[in-house]
Amino acid sequence: MTTTPPLTSAVPDLLYDSTHDQLRDSLRGLLTENCTTADLLEAAETRHQADTSLWDSIAGKLGLAGLLIPTEFGGDGATTREVAVVMEELGRAVAPVPYLASSVLATTALVDCARAGSTDAVSVLERLAAARLTATLVVQSTRAPHSNFPASVRATPGPAPAFVALSGTVTSVLAAHCANVLVVPATLSGVPVLALVDPAYSVRITPRTSMDTTRPVATVDFDNARAVVLSTGRTAVRAMNNALRTGTAMLAAEQVGLLEWTLETACSYLTVRHQFGRPIGSYQALRHRAAQMWIALGQARATSQYAAAALATDSPDADVAASLAKAHCTSLSLHAIEDCLQMHGGVGFTWEHPIHLRLKRAFAAQLTLGSPDHHLLLLGDLLDIPAPEAVGGHRITPAQEYTL
């Protein structure tokens, strides 16, 4: 008689614990009071202007800017599971703050550089954790993990080995308009480098019109800008890719927050809106749509939580989990918000309705850090599943990972 061998790997816990609940309650209370629909519409009118008071409260008062920063670098030493809770709440409120750009993308890259021995990265991380700085990773907002290392910025040797001069242009950079520090991928004689730049010197930042006015983008031009080298070669490649992978998973968590708001808003409207003397929620077709939203929320939350847990434990599944969460959650959130808008009828189609703020965020999230189609194709490569042939017989593949 044979017995089934025990599992060799632990299944991650996908449930929220008391720490997550307390974190959620604190942040939701702050956002409920300081990030109302009126505030968001006002921010939309004053394009490209970040809500500095809200960001100061989130980063400083609640101390959430340093969650991903290890304690030895002055941070809280939390994991992506806690950051996912923050992103859910920020997504639910579509808060116009640079958390994804600064506290996820730039911070993750800087942590990898600091662990590789960069004292300059450690110094920046300490100030980020203390909410004295805001940073961003200078890559196109559409760049996905495992893409080729960016070559749009060129580095030339500076007066000392630790310094370089940067020239080039990067379009559609998240939160560049409010960043005090720029983490810039560049190439030095064909070798990848990550460099640290003060945007006040030889850097021009031009705000661009974005579909999602609560998440502005800008074009960044470097004209022999002096920069400090943080890492080079494979270390730089790994740092950038890890930052993009972490940002991808956290963007999926943001979509869970959007979905949760959408479900609550749709169900509330179905009970208060009457048609022909009865609440529209009594009509079976609309109830079925609401039920599908509820199912979608459960699916999205499970997928997102698994990606956050995989990253937190440095699981071999992290790449697959992040891409799967991004492709799945962004598609579900956009479809649910479109359904919610239609449920609201004519009032839902007015630009002043808060649904449109979420609709724009969901549309923009489709392309941010790689489209769902890109991530599905990337999953095919990661899992060794052949991609379908395109019309004309040309195989569609995502950009290959940069190799030296």
Description:
- By secondary structure, this protein is an alpha+beta fold.
- It has 3 domains: 18-134, Acyl-CoA dehydrogenase/oxidase, N-terminal domain (Butyryl-Coa Dehydrogenase, subunit A, domain 1); 136-237, Butyryl-CoA Dehydrogenase, subunit A, domain 2 (Beta Barrel); 239-382, Butyryl-CoA Dehydrogenase, subunit A, domain 3.
- It is 49% helix and 15% strand.
- The protein has 11 helices and 9 strands.
- A 5-stranded mixed barrel has the order 2-3-7-5-4.
- A hairpin with an 8-residue loop joins strand 6 and strand 7.
- The longest helix is centred in the middle third of the chain and has 40 residues, at 233-272.
- The relative contact order is 0.12.
Task: Briefly say what this structure is.
With 404 residues, the chain is of the alpha+beta class. It has helices at 18-34, 37-45, 52-61, 80-93, 99-115, 119-129, 233-272, 284-312, 318-343, 354-367, 372-382, and strands at residues 135-137, 153-157, 163-174, 181-188, 191-197, 203-208, 217-232, 274-275, 278-279. The longest helix is centred in the middle third of the chain and has 40 residues, at 233-272.
* Topology as a string of helices (H) and strands (E): HHHHHHEEEEEEEHEEHHHH
Q: Largest sheet, order of strands side by side? A: 2-3-7-5-4
What level of helicity do the residues show?
A: 40-55%
Which CATH architecture of the largest domain would you pick? Up-down Bundle
Spans of at least 5 consecutive residues whose pLDDT stays below 50 are 1-8, 390-394, 399-404
Task: Give a count of the beta strands, DSSP E runs of length 2 or more.
Answer: 9
Work out the strand percent: 15-25%
In one word, what is the shape? globular
Number of helices: 11
Radius of gyration, CA atoms, in whole angstroms: 22 Å
- Can you give the mean pLDDT? 89
- Largest sheet: number of strands, sense, barrel closure: 5 strands, mixed, barrel
| Tally of individual domains | 3
Classification by helices and strands: alpha+beta
CATH superfamily of the largest domain: Butyryl-CoA Dehydrogenase, subunit A, domain 3
**CATH domain fold name of the largest domain:** Butyryl-CoA Dehydrogenase, subunit A, domain 3
Distance between the termini: 52 Å
CATH class of the largest domain: Mainly Alpha
